[in-house]
Amino acid sequence: MHKILEYFWKYNLPRWSILIIDLLICAFSLTLAFFLRFNFKSIPPEDLKNLPYDYVLVLSIRLIAFVISKTYKGVVRYTGAKDATRIFAIILLSSFVLYIINIFTRQILLGYYIIPHSVIIIDALVTIFIMISSRLAIKAIYFENKNPEKQKTQVIIYGAGESGIITKRTLDRDAAVRYKVVGFVDDDEKKKGRSLEGAFIYPTSKLAELIKENDVESVIISIQNLSPEKKNKIIDECLQLGVRVLNVPPVAKWINGELSFNQIKGINIEELLERDPIKLDNGLINEQLNNKTILITGAAGSIGSELARQCAKFNPALLVLLDQAESPLHELELEFNEKSNSKKHEVVIGDVRNKERIHNVFNTFKPQIVFHAAAYKHVPMMENNPSESILTNILGTKTVADLAVEFKVEKFVMISTDKAVNPTNVMGASKRIAEIYTQSLGKISQTKFITTRFGNVLGSNGSVIPRFKKQIEEGGPITITHPDITRFFMTIPEACQLVLEAGCMGKGGEIFVFDMGQSVKIVDLARKMIKLSGLKEDRDIKIIYTGLRPGEKLYEELLASSENTLPTHHQQILVGKVREYEFAEVTQFINELISLFNTQDNTRIVAKMKDIVPEFVSNNSVFQTLDKSS
């Protein structure tokens, strides 16, 4: 018997056999309908003599309906709601045809009904019930045979709304899935104790109890538009109980409006660090960017590429995407070509340090707004290569800024960093010097120079989260420089949205500081990522401490201690009040600094940077001797 069932599940029945079975069901249903109609007593002689004709008529109509609708071609063990709906509609429609034929035979042909109307109605209901229930029964048996109860993973669905119902149906219909839903959890008291799709709804207070009693391995969050704060609370509770957390994606990401199990995935750490959506003044941004020519330097980088995507939403006349990185820039071009048929972007390979090349870009495209994101940003790299930091971060910025003034650019928005505040490393100091130059230049030009400062962005090239993910995939260990190190984090889209908002509200000369929320302890971040991966610290993945890298801070700042801030109309954007410099003095200092490149003397270069930025005090670096000597 087991081998027969195994053969049955392995191979589909021929379609003609399913059609025959369906016709046999119809014959049985008609027989049952007559018995029900006459209370299981003798059928009256006048109806009995028409019985053979009734069977021929009913089965012929059903056969034609099945052939036209192809109901017999579906794979029975995968019967779904659409299949059931199709059977329901076909049976009703063919029964209606029988009803019309019945009236026709009475009024025109025979003078009496060939089949009682009541039998037609009962037959339709019985046929629908048996055809659908038999298919669902076969499906249930197949799933149970495929995934025995004892082999199934117990899960809880968090959220008993429409998305939760769809999630359970998705788990039920997917043959490759070995999940059993032990219940729903929802914070709506009105739903408490009710049954949904065969599973009971429990209050959120019962979550821990349910997990322990049923040996639950996963909790699936199905609630749409859940606030980051609420999601964090749910996930923290689940992780403390040692269960894995899965997430149902937004409806907009469902394939053809239908959820598939493969889309139900584990929570990304980025989702836990998100905050409530930013409210932008889209009218103001549209007024600034619509039908403008916009130049974005460093366009192939994490921030630059997202800025390009955000700007494209406001219908600029032309987006000029400039970068020296060929392959990433090519990828960005392919992305823009796929998304838009209109040629409203121009991809340019160029180095911001090359004045002739950048002059040609300005002369050719005449940009009206510049977003300057090109920079070297990795602290240890720049600590070991100070001369390169001054060429890109300082000379590159100076070149683009000078040309912006020459070609009468309306606004120049510089992307800076929190590491420019009380810098402890060469990279942060180079960005602070670039800030000083653009601010002082703005005082003597018509171009409005605006600076934006923010901390680490999630998922950017070389950031800590992609590195941790890779280390976890490779089995560890996760390397952290110091157990107490903290960082501010912001998503790339969030940072770029605030850049656009700040750039549009700026009048020139401001340094806008973004509210980065609460700083995150990196070791806590790593531990949460380990738990989200379904692993355990020390057993599956180790965390080791490697010591602070050259120039690295334990804690980042967004404002120097001597600075203060003023609020703006946007609660997440503040204006930093900083010391102002005279352009002539700044230019002289910077030209002297840049001229030191040819010496390739790192000590002299960094010493000069400290002269320009007195608050630059090196940390964990060979250049600390310069601070001691001063």
Task: Describe the SSE topology.
Layout: H1 2-10, H2 15-37, H3 45-48, H4 51-69, H5 81-109, H6 117-146, E1 153-158, H7 162-173, E2 179-185, E3 195-196, E4 199-202, H8 207-213, E5 218-221, H9 228-240, E6 244-247, E7 265-266, H10 269-273, H11 282-289, E8 293-297, H12 302-312, E9 318-323, H13 326-339, E10 345-349, H14 355-365, E11 369-372, H15 379-384, H16 386-406, E12 411-415, H17 426-442, E13 448-453, E14 456-458, H18 464-473, E15 478-480, E16 486-487, E17 489-491, H19 492-505, E18 511-514, E19 520-521, H20 522-532, E20 543-545, E21 564-567, E22 573-577, H21 583-595, H22 602-612, H23 624-629
Parallel strand pairs: 1-2, 1-5, 2-4, 5-6, 8-9, 8-11, 9-10, 11-12, 12-13, 13-18, 14-17, 15-20
Antiparallel strand pairs: 3-4, 6-7, 16-19, 18-22, 21-22
Helix pairs in contact: 2-4, 2-6, 4-5, 5-6, 11-19, 12-19, 14-16, 16-17, 17-21, 17-22, 21-22
Short description:
By secondary structure, this protein is α/β, with parallel strands linked by helices. Helices cover 48% and strands 14% of the residues.
